[in-house]
Amino acid sequence: MAGVHDEGDIRGHHGHARARSPAAPGGERVKLAISGTYSSGKTTTSIALSRLTGIPRTHAKTMREILPVLLPGRRLEDCSIPELLQLGMVRYAERAVHESHLPDGFISDGSSLHEWVYGKTRVAVGLHPGTRQDGDGFQSAAERTFFEQVIDAMGAVMRRHALQTYDAFVHLPIEFPLAADGHRPVSEEFRVKSDHLLLDTLRQAGIAVHIVGGSLPDRLEAIVRTFGLATVMPVGQAIDLARAEIDRLDTSDEMTRQHVTAAAVAPKGRV
After folding, report:
1. Can you give 42-79 as a three-state secondary structure string?
2. What percent of the residues of the chain are helix, what percent strand, and what percent coil, each to the nearest 5?
3. Distance of CA 171 to CAs 41, 50, 174, Å?
4. Are strands 8-10 and 106-109 parallel, antiparallel or unpaired?
5. Which of 108, 129, 187, 196 lies 20 to 30 angstroms, CA to CA, from 63?
6. pLDDT digits (tens, 9 = 90+) for 52-111
7. Quick one: which of 185, 183, 207 has its CA closest to 111?
8. Vertex 106, ends 111 and 198: CA angle to 5°?
9. Which residues, in sequence order, are bridge partners of residue 31?
10. Helix, strand counts (H, E) of the chain
11. Between helices 81-100 and 112-125, what is the axis angle to 10°?
12. For the CA atoms of 246, 180, 82, 62, what is the dihedral angle to 10 degrees?
């Protein structure tokens, strides 16, 4: 269903819906990506929407979850561009595999574009988001340009995947403060730049995108209405289940995860 579709700003039943639905036949079979930058509500929205509709949710591990296995002892903030490329490739591969197991439709927490946008924005803002350093962490302008070219080459593959896989995107704008949980190593500048890059990329690619704002109940009701999705429980119950699931998520940083992993595999009596 990729192609040029109308883009709308959907604010739920308290606002004015201005979007036309690109819903897949049968509604529930839609392959829908929930898009947005850090702390936009992707995970909560995707879990609640999955509960509400019964459509399976899919996602990829966060970089902080991947780091202790792929690059033991490294902090995300300190990763070099080659290491970020490794992380992005692992996330993309995991995401693509999970999506391939759900041919009848899914709700994706994020999309294949997010790994590229993270790397692209990291090059633009600097290797250490939240701080400013001489050269932004690069040895020279030529090095920065080279890595940007490499990241864009990866981005071309990820955009191709998005065009071939997702029926539409629901983009969540920045409406909430950046969560101070230690799991989001970015600045407000990073959030704004990556948000703009995501939307610009979707528009230029001609992928159907709907901007959905407002409260969580409004977001869910707007998405269900737009795509003609059947529901299997009340909105409030879906939200309660989603929040309970969110509360159980492990948001510890990669160094804590590294210590826990090492302790779990160490011989008895040694840590």
Report:
1. HHHHHHHHHHHHCCCEECCCCHHHHHHHHCCCCCHHHC
2. 55, 10, 40
3. 10, 16, 10
4. unpaired
5. 196
6. 999 999 999 888 888 888 888 888 777 887 888 898 899 999 999 999 999 999 999 999
7. 207
8. 20
9. 106
10. 9, 6
11. 170
12. 0
Q: What 3-state DSSP class applies to 211?
A: strand
Q: Which residues of the chain have pLDDT under 50?
A: 1-6, 8-27, 134-135, 183-184, 265-266, 271
Tokens in use for 223? 């998405």
Q: Order of strands, edge to edge, in the sheet holding 57-58?
A: 8-10, 209-212, 168-171, 31-35, 106-109, 57-58
Q: What is the DSSP string of 225-258?
A: HHHT---SS-HHHHHHHHHHHHHTS----HHHHH
Which residue bears the tokens 């590229």?
A: 116
The first and second tokens of residue 112, run together, are 């294949």
